[in-house]
């Protein structure tokens, strides 16, 4: 910083900067820079983004935490609870830890009532995903959800429909969208405004179903999907009122060479 020092920043400004930093840095780096930075990390505002996907909870990471904080053992549940406590129930973004325990999952849901953005990673276990629908009611202010697969999608959307009146955005990573999934989107969240289905397997008829049923869509991303052609005229006509419609790279059939493999 030209003309000043980082340690001279007011606490509010410093906290505003640090709340954009990941969990690992907030725990293992920033508190040890200087006293003012340490004090800033004690503020709950720095812990509003609970993105546990940034953490590789492996042997090396556990040793670093144990050595830094002079503790003799550290298991996943204890670690998750300690991080969530720092947020003082003010977290607005939550990425569920795929390596967490059931106890940790239930604790996070209970102690993060103000979550606006929820991320369910693709490698979240089936046992944990089955429990997610029953936890949605903890997040009344939920606005956006990113799901790693279509497993339990219908159940999740049903609970969102019943409990989350501010919900407007859904992202499904590399989804397989069939009749059940398309109908769930249309019937359970018909007022959705943002929908990202990039790299999905989806027949053109289901794209039509979504466009005809979700009249308030402002952003619809179906780039690089398989199941319909990029220049499908019916789809383009139905999407004419969608403010930002992205469809480039979609194709009718999957091409084997697109995976980077070669057939011999």
Mean pLDDT over the residues: 92
Q: Determine Rg (CA atoms, Å).
A: 22 Å
Instruction: Tell me the distance between the termini.
Output: 57 Å
The residue fraction in helices comes out at 25-40%
Strand order of the largest sheet: 1-2-3-4-5-7-9-10
Number of helices: 11
Global outline: elongated
Question: What is the total number of structural domains?
Answer: 2
Enumerate the spans where pLDDT stays under 50 for 5 or more consecutive residues.
259-264
Instruction: Return the CATH topology of the largest domain.
Output: Leucine-rich repeat, LRR (right-handed beta-alpha superhelix)
Work out the number of β strands: 10
CATH class of the largest domain: Alpha Beta
Question: β content, as a range?
Answer: 5-15%
H/E element order? HHHEHHEHEHEHEEHEEHEHE
User: In the CATH classification, which architecture of the largest domain applies?
Assistant: Alpha-Beta Horseshoe
CATH fourth-tier homologous superfamily of the largest domain: Ribonuclease Inhibitor
Largest sheet, in brief, is:
8 strands, parallel
Structural class: alpha/beta
What does this molecule look like?
With 264 residues, the protein is of the alpha/beta class. It folds into 2 domains: 8-46; 47-53 and 83-246, Leucine-rich repeat, LRR (right-handed beta-alpha superhelix). Helices cover 38% and strands 12% of the residues. It contains 11 helices and 10 strands. It has helices at residues 11-18, 23-28, 35-41, 59-69, 76-87, 102-111, 126-135, 153-163, 179-188, 204-213, 233-238; strands at 49-51, 93-95, 117-120, 144-147, 169-172, 176-177, 194-196, 201-202, 219-221, 244-246. The strands form 2 sheets. The protein has an 8-stranded parallel sheet with strand order 1-2-3-4-5-7-9-10, covered by helices on one side. Strands 6-8 form a two-stranded parallel sheet. Strand 4 (144-147), helix 8 (153-163) and strand 5 form a beta-alpha-beta unit. Helix 5 packs parallel to helix 6 (102-111), helix 8 (153-163) packs parallel to helix 9 and helix 9 packs parallel to helix 10 (204-213). It is elongated. The protein starts with 10 loop residues before the first helix and ends in an 18-residue tail after the last strand. Residues 259-264 have low confidence and may be disordered. InterPro entries: F-box-like_dom_sf, F-box_dom, LRR_dom_sf. This is F-box/LRR-repeat protein. It holds the Pfam family F-box. It comes from Actinidia chinensis var. chinensis. Residues 6-48 form the F-box domain.
